[in-house]
Design goal:
The chain has about 150 residues and is an alpha+beta fold. The chain is built from four helices and five strands. It is elongated, with a radius of gyration of 17 Å.
Length: about 150
């Protein structure tokens, strides 16, 4: 499904995103390495085994990126101009290797841009859940979206 235009969004609209993804050890170690994050909670099994988690946890920025990525196909694919910001990012539960993540989105607000007649701003609340139904990530994302029709 192609992304939606500003006029196709409405406050309260919800999406149960069809993509799911099982997070692997390679995802976590590669992402941590690519982003120069040597946190032993992510890359050192021996260290992590002695923590309250008992094992490595997945890098939270990978989880956030995965969450937002899973929403693109049904919301913003080809119709977003830019991400304007992310607010109220939270990770209420850790993600572990082997967890399968699914995403849910709620449109919190929609408004035309005051300075760009060809665009508007949509605020999404994105939520990620593991296979046990536990919320593992949430954020508010503001996106500058294309309008189907330009008003002058």
């Amino acid at each position: 499904m192609a992304g939606l235009y500003l006029e196709e969004f409405f406050e309260g609209q919800t999406f149960e995103h069809s993509l799911r993804r099982t997070v692997t050890e390679m995802d976590n170690v590669l992402f941590s390495s690519l982003t120069l994050n040597p946190q032993p909670l992510h890359i050192d099994e021996e260290f992590a085994s002695k923590t309250e988690f008992g094992q490595r946890i997945v890098n939270s920025l990978f989880t956030l990126g995965l969450l937002i990525g899973m929403t693109v196909g049904e919301t913003t694919l080809g119709t977003t101009i830019a991400n304007l910001g992310m607010d109220k990012v939270a990770f209420p539960k850790p993600v572990f290797h082997g967890d399968t993540i699914r995403a849910h989105s709620i449109v919190r607000s929609v408004r035309p841009s005051a300075s760009r007649p060809d665009a508007g701003v949509v605020v999404f609340e994105h939520q990620a859940f593991n296979q046990r139904g536990e919320m593992v990530a949430t954020c508010l994302r503001s996106a500058l979206m294309r309008r189907r029709t330009v008003t002058v």
